[in-house]
Amino acid sequence: MGLFLAVFAIFLVVVLAMSVGFIVQRKTISGSCGGIGALGMEKACDCDEPCDERKARMAKEEQWQQNRIK
Q1: What is the pTM of this model?
Q2: 43: which DSSP letter?
Q3: Which tops the pLDDT comparison, 49 or 10?
Q4: Do residues 54 and 45 touch, judged by C-beta distance below 8 A?
Q5: Nearest to 61 by CA among 47, 48, 43
């Protein structure tokens, strides 16, 4: 039990140190080097015809973009 508490405390200190470092640097969280585009994929789902759920989401996003105040 003592070993578990020691390891837990070490992990807690490391996470706390990483959090403080992140806050001090004031950087935004960014993705990896290129993301999906680096794999040669143009979109998240690489199918020719998106599913109905994806089509509905895309239509909703397009409507939101059209109604946005510019």
Answers
A1: 0.39
A2: S
A3: 10
A4: yes
A5: 43
